[in-house]
Specification:
This protein has 63 residues and is α+β, with helices and mostly antiparallel strands. It has one domain (2-60). Helix content is 33%, strand content 16%. It has helices at 22-33, 52-60; strands at residues 2-5, 11-16. A two-stranded antiparallel sheet has the order 1-2. A hairpin with a 5-residue loop joins β1 and β2. The longest helix is centred in the middle third of the chain and has 12 residues, at 22-33. The model has no long low-confidence stretch (mean pLDDT 93).
């Protein structure tokens, strides 16, 4: 599950499920980039090894 929330608490992207696929990650990146935000913090739950693909995705895209 992912969402995008501003520092003031405004929900910019409603929560939705993302599959661990290149297409879903690319779609998420496009949705985030449309907001042209300067500072983005990624917060995620550590779920054993299951968070690793999206963690890597965010790191590779300079988050």
């Amino acid at each position: 599950m992912v969402t995008l929330v501003s520092s003031s608490g405004e929900v910019l992207i409603d929560p939705y499920k993302v599959s661990h696929s290149v297409n879903d990650f690319a779609s998420l990146l496009n949705r985030i980039n449309k907001f042209k935000l300067d500072n983005i913090y990624v917060i995620m739950e550590s779920t054993g090894i299951y968070h690793r693909p999206i963690e890597r995705f965010f790191l590779e895209n300079n988050f």
